[in-house]
Write a structure and sequence with these properties.
Blueprint (H helix, E strand, L loop, with lengths): L10 E3 L2 E2 L4 H10 L6 E7 L3 E6 L2 E6 H5 L1 E2 L1
Antiparallel strand pairs: 1-3, 2-6, 3-4, 4-5
């Protein structure tokens, strides 16, 4: 299941990042978004969702959210 289908307020563990874009992969890694890390969807929006990773909150678009498998 990817992040776009995640339930709000529930903590998940990131299983994999599915992307061929190295820049995107590096960006997610810099946020602390990689396999084994916990992630929580704070809220879903039309254009994406707000997530909590480590001590930060980030607004990510649907394309990015669909690349994160939980």
């Amino acid at each position: 299941m990817d992040l776009t289908k995640a339930e709000e307020g529930k903590e998940y563990i990131i299983k994999d990042i599915v992307t061929d874009d190295e820049e995107l992969n590096a960006f997610l890694f810099s946020l602390g978004c990689y396999s084994g890390e916990p992630i929580t969807v704070i809220s879903h929006r039309k254009s994406g969702c707000v997530v909590s990773i480590k001590d930060g909150r980030y607004n990510i678009d649907n394309e990015l959210a669909s690349a994160i498998l939980i």
